Amino acid sequence: MKLDDLKHAQRERLIFLDRCLTWRGMANRKDLIDHFGISTAQAALDFRVYLSLAHSTPPTYDPVRKTYIASIEHEPLAPSGLTEALDILTSDDEDTPPSALPRPERKADRRTIALLHQAIRSGKALHVRYTSMSSGTDEGQWIAPTRFTSDGESVHLRAHSFKHGEYRNYLPIRIDPDSSFEEKPIDKPLPEDVDWNTRAIIWLRPKTGLSDEQAKVVRREFGFEGEWLRVETRKALEFFFDRRWGLDTVGARLERAKTDYEPI
Amino acid sequence: MKLDDLKHAQRERLIFLDRCLTWRGMANRKDLIDHFGISTAQAALDFRVYLSLAHSTPPTYDPVRKTYIASIEHEPLAPSGLTEALDILTSDDEDTPPSALPRPERKADRRTIALLHQAIRSGKALHVRYTSMSSGTDEGQWIAPTRFTSDGESVHLRAHSFKHGEYRNYLPIRIDPDSSFEEKPIDKPLPEDVDWNTRAIIWLRPKTGLSDEQAKVVRREFGFEGEWLRVETRKALEFFFDRRWGLDTVGARLERAKTDYEPI
DNA sequence: TTTAATCGTATAATTTCTAGATGGACATAC
DNA sequence: GTATGTCCATCTAGAAATTATACGATTAAA
Hints:
homodimer, WHD_CapW (chains A, B), CapW_CTD (chains A, B), plasmid (chains A, B)
């Protein structure tokens, strides 16, 4: 049996269970019961199924501690990073501040997003008024939205700008909600979005000037062994890279070695 | 009927449906079927239930476009930010780079995390070797882990350091996986973690020097009307705040006005 | 006109899950 | 040492959720 053979609901439960075993190193029926509101019997069944799936490195029951303990060589069924597993490790109260730093979340207008989404779907151009920090609000322009992207901080809109004759990244929040949002079909095919369809392979190395020992720490911290750390993204998103990775700050511990481009 | 009365599985489906209606402004049975692998009949039932829950601002079916369209005044059943809803708006291929910029994910050692978690649970002190960028690897020290936290970038460990006689934030990745991890009970009660139990209320305002128009954009972008934006966190996490919000960079558009502290 | 894609409904069969009872192993308190 | 509580496990009957299948309606496009 495979994880994918299961129904969505049970698969979710087993993945949760798997994460508990991976990051806590232990798990109980109670964890499943509290998290999913299922009965003890079902939780017991889930454990049976999990054990049958994890045949290579099954967890063992420790009657003294009354929990299942992950095997030393535990192999996660579904790989996960620590960041994604954070909520498994923390337990926040309702009325106290959370244990994670709040993010600078940009608010977005529901209706604007929906209109953009529908323009993407139907391949229409939209008339919008856009405000940039530098030049202020424009008088309205036609754009052809193609997709949503993210720089990890906020959501961007990738669109062809007829005004500038090129593809650009827009922040949906800066689109005036009172724009006309007039629609029109795109008469002649849009040019290819070359930057989007170009793979950018960025090679990073510990910052010049770090001691050997410090460089070693940086390598372990970012999980690479050799000289370089390879990160892959799209050329269209590369602009955001340095800020997102903090390469432009004083305390940066990584720097770019080189960047390769190849069409996708 | 309330959303909370439903079983976990169906609640998940309705929340997904709700997000589609909120951010796409439209939804189909097919969305549910593709995302959860349920039958058309079940998807139809889910729509019935959703409509009964969203009695105040129900979506309507548009036979021309063959989809449900969210009401203009659509009220989400479960509020969500745009960032969380990003995956609803994007559709990534398997073998092309994703449409989101990769994050600088720190790798973490499973076993180390599990040991820390278990020490937190059982209230034990642990002997670890810690490497800091400045002072290099120490010879080992006793710490009393209390909880995991996050600065939004990577996961931290909050622990009482016996060596320094105070609570500190540690990066689990910098704990040597070959530490002894010797356990010992905590003999006398730990002091209160004052910084953790202090609420930090940070008041931000558009950066001095911005034009009125620019300030207006910033206000809309971060979703506040009046003079200040109020952000709440814990004093123990405040150290990470400026970096996370980019207040320390050249292009910052927000600055701190003041900070209030109050015990939790 | 036909085909395809939506929507909807209904029924019976199947799977999943619950409720409630029972028993065993162990730790702790008395 | 015995009682108690808390985990684990399992069993069965029944409730609930879900599927499979079939059928009908509307609309757009080939």
